Amino acid sequence: METETLAVLMFPAVIALLLLGLQVSFSLIAVGFLFGWVLYDYRVGIQLFNIIQTTASQFLLTAVPPFILMGCVLERSGIAERLFRVVQIWVGRLPNGLALTTMAMATMIAATTGIVGAVEVMIGLMAIPAMQRLGYRNDLIAGTVCAGGSLGTMIPPSLVLIVYASVANLSVGKLFAAAILPGILMVGLFMLYIIVRGILAPPAVPYADTEGEGMTLGRKLWLTLVGLLPATALIVAVLGTILLGIATPTEAASVGALGALLLAAADRRLNGRMLRDAFLTTVRLTSMILLIVVAGSMFSSIFRGLGGNDVVRGLVDAIQVDALGLVLLLLAIVFVAGFILEWVSVLLICLPIFVPLLDLYGVDPIWFAMLTFVMLQTSYLTPPMAPSIFYLKGIAPPGMTTRQMYAGVLPFILCQIVVLAILIAVPSLATWLPTVLVTGF
Amino acid sequence: MLHRLHTVLRGVDRLSDAMAALAVVLLGVMIGATLYEVVARHFFNAPTIWSNDVSYMLNGSVFMLAAAYTLRRDAHVRIDVLWQMLPRALRHGVQALFLLAVFTPVLGFGTYYAVTKAWRAWSRGSLETASAWEPLIWPFLTGLAVGMLGLLVQAVAEGIRHLLRLAGVPGSDDDPAAAS
Amino acid sequence: AEIDLRMAIISSENSIYYEDMAKPFADLVAELTDGRVEIEILPAGTVGSVLKLHDAVQDGLIDMAQTTPIFLGTSDLVNAMVASFPTGLGVDSYLPWLYQAGGLELWQEHRRETMGMHALVTSLGPSEFFAHANEPITGADDLEGKKFRTLGNWAAIVEENYGVSPTVVAGSEIYGMLEKGGIDMAEYSIPSENQKIGFHEVAKYIIYPGIQAPAWAFETVMLTETWESLPEDIQRRMELAAELTTHRSLQAMITRDLKALEELQDGGNAFVRLDDAFIADAQEKARAWAMRLAEQAQAEGDDLPMRLAESVFGFQDYWRDNAKYLVMDYRK
Ligand code: NA
Ligand code: NA
């Protein structure tokens, strides 16, 4: 059998294992290993260990546990809850006000980190209990947290764009600038959907505890100051250290973790038991997330070793199209690859094949980067391999089912497709800001 | 006999708990090292050469050392949409078969090389060369190897637990997430 | 093909490491052996870490790897010196040292004796930029107290002698740190590579010449057994392909870099040249650093580092003393 055929067969194999309810990371590792035997025989064990060591050696991934710890501490210290209560005073009568708040917070946190998963887990830890208490439906909660988490890569800084820039030989600064308007557009559409849904289908227990009822404005303002200040200060501190060049985005995660611990201490909520719980939850979630990264890399490395690239190249070569047709075809490939492969591999496989074609057809590389980028956001939410769902499951309360999660993310995926369509229609949304912001000297 | 088996299984759990506790300590050190670098660089113009290396080595050790504990808590996620519709016996059968006959041997190969490489690095005093600091690499490799060994042992234990549940043995709890 | 070899490289398919180094070598080998040898190139992401390809060859995971000895670290002076050495051989003197003055033999001897591998030198890269900086830098006084993103033996040399604070920053975070002033200056790669990433967009000053990497060579390594299992005529043809690719890669990359220089000089960046006095002083310091390591190794019974250091420094002095009649075709 041609090895390219084997490469393609890896997909159904892993989907079968996933549907049987086996651990996502274990399934990917097992399929990668067994197919890898064809390439490396027993030495595929070395390959597995190499991938583990490589992932474990990624400096940028050191941002993952501090961010999760930040979320765990804010949740357990009650700071998160107070924050959401205060917000409820003001937005309590807005349709789905709390979901909007969650989305706004996700946007702010996304501006401090570029790591997939970190934003989602952090925001989820803080917001899910509050939304459940107010009777929000599980699918809306799930969709909001997953889509909010996906902003972690959509809003700069973004690890996806850093990798994209290096593989496609583009300026990181220009890509970051290009992502700002599409990012805002996406947040806007997410919020629009949440509002419209709030009007059409209000929460099951409509606004049960309207905190603000009959409260004087002075008291409201005081509560807001006390409730909103700590969490806001924390986000400002993390963002500030990055913008002032004091810390890299990776290091800023640790600044945030320290900040959360200090806030909890100032609140006298820090004790041995809480600390132990928060740290144990953090290492558990970190282990789950990073093992999925390992597994995705293992699977992809074997897929590529078997000639997966040639499969993609063959597909592209086989079809005769014009420039727009080419763009749509390439995006379709990214979309399909994103169903299973993790995004780094999608970029490593696709870009070397795509970039020369873009030159040939005269497609603007920054515009195409943004289209690919949005398409990758979508792959983060689309089943069966939906990292966002996996991370959510790591923190979801018992009552929330996978089905509700899938249903919940669907409307947000549609929002992303709309953003994509708008970007295709109006390329300057992506290409204008880089010319204004990145001017050089 | 069965009693002894349960004792062994609980022993494995305790081992995983201990590794998770170690991971917690290492995580604390990692955050501390990062903060030290930020302060030393920005306020004292004295960046360290070791902070980046220490951070990633600790981060890598943390996630691997906690992997067994995470498995015990059934926190390595799975897609349960179809799975929940399967009969109970089939669920446990599939899990046991996969863990014992597929995943354990696969991880076993990787673990064998992890242990070999850690051992070789220790006996030769190998350095981490792809770094500015070039420290000894065996502590990091040992962290990974121990974590993988722990995950391997816990995977066997969980496989056996699924077998016990399949056989309907009393005392084989059905909800690992509730076990502590 | 009669002989199929899998060769891992350190980057993806649309990088200079593929286009100027790996692909031309593989193509030339196929051509010169009339298709009897086929080299399959495995780009980044196929075999674990790109920083550890020597290991992957020794583990038998792949047949060959095209990579840099820099990834083997600086504790063995030979690895720290053969590919590139701060203030060492330049784009003009490196090739004659390698092919006419015994450089290649020393390199291959080291690989064979210490790693059980055969090395073909398969590319040479041209000078890098000294740094992209937020302030003009001309010499030692300007370097004092600067947070300088640099690596390896050069980091040790500038810290020890010029009061620099070498700062470790992940490659992908250099742009942001330079932009926000978290570091004062950064060195990365050759002009065309730096230009792609866009460091010139965030730091006004471009400091040259890149004395920390005047020229840099890449090797293609395989196990000694693999090499010896090849028929002698195949070996000769592969050596020829290696040498030809080394020459061609240098020219290809310089050509790219000249284009980058033209564009950068048309822009608003300020080009700042290092003082000759500083360059001379840095060379003294760099050589002292190397000799210290060589003497250490010699005391421990390993004379190869000393032989290499003497070979490089001796040839460099010889070249400088006598090459003044040559026409170097640029304006000072
Ligand atoms: Na972000
Ligand atoms: Na997906």
UniProtKB/TrEMBL annotation, chain A:
Molecular-function annotations in GO: transmembrane transporter activity
Membrane topology designation: Multi-pass membrane protein
Segments forming domain TRAP C4-dicarboxylate transport system permease DctM subunit: 13-428
GO cellular component, one term: plasma membrane
Superkingdom as given in the UniProt entry: Bacteria
Keywords associated with the record: Cell inner membrane, Cell membrane, Membrane, Transmembrane, Transmembrane helix, Transport
Subcellular location: Cell inner membrane
Main location: membrane
Transmembrane domains' residue ranges: 6-39, 59-79, 99-128, 140-164, 176-200, 221-246, 282-303, 323-354, 366-386, 406-426
Chain's role: Part of the tripartite ATP-independent periplasmic (TRAP) transport system.
Subunit structure: The complex comprises the extracytoplasmic solute receptor protein and the two transmembrane proteins.
Family: Belongs to the TRAP transporter large permease family.
Record protein name field: TRAP transporter large permease protein
From TrEMBL, chain B:
InterPro entries: DctQ (IPR055348), TRAP_DctQ (IPR007387)
One Pfam short name: DctQ
Subcellular locations according to the entry: Cell inner membrane
Keywords: Cell inner membrane, Cell membrane, Membrane, Transmembrane, Transmembrane helix, Transport
UniProt keyword Transmembrane present: yes
Gene Ontology CC entries for this record: plasma membrane
Transmembrane segments: 21-44, 56-72, 93-115, 135-157
The protein's assembly and partners: The complex comprises the extracytoplasmic solute receptor protein and the two transmembrane proteins.
Family in the record: Belongs to the TRAP transporter small permease family.
Protein's UniProt name: TRAP transporter small permease protein
Organism: Roseospira goensis
Organism placement in taxonomy: Bacteria, Pseudomonadati, Pseudomonadota, Alphaproteobacteria, Rhodospirillales
